[in-house]
Amino acid sequence: MKPSYTTMPLAIQAFFVSLLFFSSIASAAIVEHVFQVKNVVVKPLCKEQRIPTVNGSLPGPTINVREGDTLVVHVINNSTFSITIHWHGVFQLKSPWMDGANMITQCPIQPRNNFTYRFDITGQEGTLFWHAHVVNLRATLHGALIIRPRSGRPYPFPKPYKEAPLVFGQWWDTDIEQLNLRPAPICDAYLINGLAGDSYPCSENRMFKLKVIQGKTYLLRIINAALNTHLFFKIADHNVTVVSVDAAYTTPYGSDVMILTPGQTVDALLTADQPIGMYYMSIIPYLSASSLAPAPPRKVINSLIVYKGATSTTSPSRSLMPSQINSVSTAHRFSSNITSLVGGPYWTLVPRHVDEKMFVTMGLGLEQCPSETKCAGPSGQRITGSLSNRTFLMPGTISLQEAYFYNISGVYTDDFPDQPPIKFDYANFRVHTDSEKKMIFPERKTSVKTLKYNSTVEIVVQNTGIITTESHPMHLHGFNFYVLGYGFGNYVPARDAKKLNLVNPQMHNTVGVPPGGWVALRFIANNPGAWIFHCHMDAHLPYGIIMAFIVENGPTPETSLQPPPSNLPQCTHDPTIYESPTTNVGLSY
Ligand code: C2O
Questions:
Q1: Residues facing 444 on adjacent strands
Q2: pLDDT at position 55
Q3: Where are the alpha helices (DSSP H) in 160-236?
Q4: Residue 374: is it exposed, middle or buried by C-beta count within 10 angstroms (0-12/13-18/19+)?
Q5: Separation of CA 33 and ligand 1 centre (Å)
Q6: How would DSSP label each residue in 230-247?
């Protein structure tokens, strides 16, 4: 018989009370890490390559925290690159200087310099990740950031037997410095937890293996840390139950396939309910753009589930991956069917009143090729990108947030429009008039939109057919947004606004806009500071598919932007370290 609490001797009761007391203290722990950024030699395929890493590993270290903890990371930059580390999806409430967005919230940490990131993680649970936020470097500088409930709080789903992070990466078998200096070539492989698996040369015996026991349930914490590619993920003969996306709980959603854009995460329960054996867990690129882009090979990348008791002589079961033909509909089905866990932890009702309505066109464009350079775009011009016909120009000498805080003029203009300059047939773009022709050549400037504290913002992002339609993963720093709806073609308010889901929409920090389609998002600007909204394809950062919000102070010091920490990295005047528009030209995957 179990002793009930009240029948226990007093001393033991006191012991339990003090345990409770300590556990409530323990629920606000300080979790401290040292990130030694250094170049090391790795060999995922046949050639040795020197790459920047955190603590020598690829992917970098997994950070485990509980909701309510303070995370402290000392970044010691012993690499040859200037870097920042961004905590992708972390709200950074009251800590906007810790967001790690290069030239937005700080200048980069120079080689042989240090910086300590320190912030609380509150009001969110699930799987996120950290990554470098400087062109291309996040290819090798990334790792999982796992937020579990505070102690004593259960998951809102059956407790898994074990948990396993699965980090997808993209690999170029090239010196990473070369990647910065020419059009990024097509990648050579994708990696699952740093390994290319048995479908790649020199990698046959290096494959991530998840050992399972028949009948047990596992929580897969899946992260797409690839630079430029949406990835399908599928497990042979097993279905999974999605319980969270981008660290926001979902209504349990059963599926045999998933799609993750760069920057998205999925938590899914996997029950080992099949006969004892070995089963591939595989990824394959999802390519939504038409012909123009040089495409990486549609080659399956494998990892493996190994049941306890399986014999190594049988070959693993494989799954049929989505084909190029059905990939758009497969991706759309998965993305659009997920809903939020209403009433679950951190769920809040969708605000009905909207203060700021924005309609933002998003896609590619062209600009004049600089003299003495060769450009890969149509008729020798350079490919660029835009939001509402603006190409974002990264500040060059001071971060946007410092320019705002210190009121330094000439760094940005507060004029990001609520509408593109003209109305046109966005998704089926054709030039009939001069003003339509102007839409191909966006204006390059550092343009922001200022928001009142606590205002509700609705953004409809409309993908254009300028150059080509393509699914871009739009990522917002500092906030989660509700995804109220997805559609193909042009967003027509009279038809589409009434179909938006205001009841249980999914929440994300990154959303894949359907190719030639739209998404409708809503968020509450409750976090003063400078926050960017950008395409999470790394190749599209230098294209300028970025805009920034500045959220004004609230009524109290608590809700106001505080001065930056005194050791916030300052800019040197070496222009090569910034996300200069002259680096990547040409489309790259
Ligand atoms: Cu994960 Cu601004 O990005």
A1: 391
A2: 98
A3: 176-181
A4: exposed
A5: 21
A6: EEEEEETT--EEEEEETT
CA of 182 to the centre of ligand 1 (A): 22
pLDDT band at 575; cut points 50, 70, 90:
very low
Q: Which atom of ligand 1 is nearest to the CA of 532?
A: 2
Distance of alpha carbon 352 from alpha carbon 204, whole angstroms: 54
With a 6 A CB cut-off, is 133 part of the ligand 1 pocket?
A: yes
Our answer on whether the CB atom of 536 is closer than 6 Å to any ligand 1 atom is yes
How far apart are the C-alpha atoms of 467 and 587, rounded to whole Å?
Answer: 11
Task: Decide: 100 in ligand 1 pocket, CB within 6 A.
Answer: no
Tell whether the model's pLDDT for residue 214 goes beyond 60: yes
Q: Is 88 in the pocket of ligand 1 (CB under 6 A)?
A: yes
Which residue has the least CA distance to atom 1 on ligand 1?
A: 88
Report the sign of the C-alpha dihedral through residues 170, 242, 125, 455, in that order.
positive
Is-contact 98 133, C-beta < 8 A?
no
Q: Using one digit for the tens of pLDDT, what is the confidence trace for 136-185?
A: 899 999 999 999 999 999 999 999 999 999 999 999 998 776 665 445 67
For residue 371, what are its two tokens? Answer: 């003299």
Domains assigned to the chain: 21-148 (2.60.40.420), 162-337 (2.60.40.420), 356-559 (2.60.40.420)
**The pLDDT of residue 293:** 60
Q: Say how far apart CA 436 and CA 422 lie, in whole Å.
A: 8
H or E segment to which residue 337 belongs: helix 327-337
Kindly state if the Cβ of 230 falls inside 6 Å of ligand 1: no
Task: Quote the DSSP letter at residue 410.
Answer: T
Token duo for residue 340: 């939020």
- pLDDT grade for 291, boundaries at 50, 70 and 90: low
How many residues in the chain?
589
Q: Provide CB contacts within 8 A for 133, sequence distance 6+.
A: 84, 85, 86, 100, 101, 102
> Which residues in 501-527 are b (16+ Cβ under 10 Å) and which e?
beebbbbbbbbbbbbbbbbbbbbbbbb
The CB of 195 under 6 Å from ligand 1? The reply is no
382 lines ligand 1 (CB under 6 A): no
Q: How far is the CA of 533 from the centre of ligand 1 (A)?
A: 9
Max Cα distance, the chain (Å): 87
What Cα–Cα distance (Å) separates residue 188 from each residue in 47, 58, 194, 207, 436? Answer: 11, 16, 13, 16, 38
477 ligand 1 Cβ < 6 A: yes
Residue 482 host element (H or E): strand 481-488
pLDDT at residue 24 above 90? no
Does residue 584 have a pLDDT over 90? no
* 561 CB within 6 A, ligand 1: no
As a whole number of angstroms, the distance between CA 75 and CA 33 comes to: 9
Q: Can you tell me the distance from the alpha carbon of 172 to that of 375, in angstroms, rounded to the nearest whole number?
A: 21
What integer is the mean pLDDT of 560-576? 84
